[in-house]
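Researcher: I'm preparing a figure for a lab meeting and need a structural model of a single chain. I don't have an experimental structure, so a prediction will have to do for now. The sequence is pasted below. Please return the structure as tokens so I can convert it later.
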Amino acid sequence: MSKFTRDYVITMKDIVKEGDLILRQVIDEVNLPPSQEDREELACMMQFLKNSQDPDLSQKYGLRAGVGLSANQIGLNKRMFAVYFTDEKGKLHEYELINPKIISTSATMVYLPQSEGCLSVDREISGFVPRYERIKLKAYDTEGSEIHLRFKGFPAVVIQHEMDHLNGIMFYDRINKENPFKLPENVDIKSI
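Model: Understood. Here is the structure written out token by token.
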């Protein structure tokens, strides 16, 4: 029985930190339809993201603000993640995704000028993280229904960051080792 039920409040002590082996492994797919436990865990992860963005609750529980959380970041070997954020156009993105798979990407790429952050990384890391500007995703919702989603710009960056977690990749693995601010060549890439 998982402790991550609907009523459990995830705090920073629950977040797995870099160096833990689960952050470096390819995470196992979830059996479909998802179990009650899987759904509760995702709801708990989503509540953490909402709490972390609430000034009062984040202060009360000592939370760092996050826009995405993958199951392995709380120690679960389950291929699922939650994202919760508002994009640059004011659209709310609230998804609990199971067994997500990127099925197509754009040729064009983007990066965040301030680099990326991660709840599992407690240090400042500078450098550009190249990401696809647009992605198409296939996943399953909490009922086990197949869904297809498209993301562009910042939302695409968030989804790719969480997808990397499920594949044992940390965001800084994508930063150029010799020159952190060097961008890939022969690619149409821009800052967002």
